[in-house]
Design brief:
By secondary structure, the protein is of the alpha+beta class. It has six helices and twelve strands.
Length: about 220
């Protein structure tokens, strides 16, 4: 295992908030642990994750940063790098923390140069409870990760739709908040395309190997 990597500047792909005004219907919800993924699948024996064909463009909608308030985050990696995106929530009892731990372990398996070329972004699907605390939550797993979110649920839905991310937040009769969401991690390249999805339960070893392969291709 590598020694802790030095801090790098956070929030590199940020733009001043502009007049983004996109609305979309909430994509169909899926329960935690669902393995449904929209779009056709392509075979790539070099990768363990799910490859969709054609690769969706996911950089058409930006979301406000909760890590640097007043900034806007684009779903696109820097040139030759990779962005890993997750749609989840802080009150998730098991799927979200397990996924973030597995990702953090995968990043530590990379050499320092490759680890520095990966940016982690977590978007909240539960903004009513997460906007003030998501940054502290995600950085407890990956110290230089970026938290994004907005009270505009239509904008969050529009950002998640091209990923194939889906969720539903509901309140039960006794006032309990329940959240179902698709539990995928998404890898985005420097063209703003979704190049790989990992299902919940993907091993850290597989994710590290996939990230290394994708970075080698991006930098070839």
């Amino acid at each position: 295992m590598n020694s802790p990597r030095p801090e790098r500047p956070r929030h590199r792909r940020l733009h001043r908030i502009g007049g983004v005004a996109l609305a979309a219907a909430l994509v169909a919800s899926a329960a935690c642990g669902s393995d449904d993924e929209s779009g056709g699948e392509a075979s790539d024996p070099a990768l363990s994750g799910v490859v969709r064909d054609p690769a969706p463009e996911v950089d058409l909608v930006t979301l406000p940063s909760l890590s640097d308030p007043g900034e806007e985050v684009e779903f696109r990696a820097d040139e030759g790098e990779l962005q890993v995106v997750y749609f989840g929530f802080t009150n998730c009892p098991d799927v979200c923390p397990t996924t973030m731990v597995d990702l953090a372990v995968a990043l530590r398996m990379l050499d320092d140069d490759q680890a520095d070329d990966v940016e982690v972004v977590m978007a909240t699907v539960d903004p009513d409870r997460d906007l003030e605390i998501l940054d502290g939550y995600v950085t407890s797993f990956v110290p230089d990760a970026i938290a994004v979110g907005t009270p505009d649920t239509e904008l969050i839905a529009a950002a998640g739709e091209p990923f194939g991310a889906s969720w539903e937040v509901r309140e039960t009769d006794d006032g309990t908040i329940e959240v179902d969401h698709s539990p995928f991690l998404y890898a985005v390249d420097d063209e703003g395309k979704l190049v790989l999805s990992w299902q919940f339960g993907a091993s850290s070893e597989d994710m590290a190997a996939d990230i290394s392969t994708l970075l080698e291709r991006a930098q070839a």
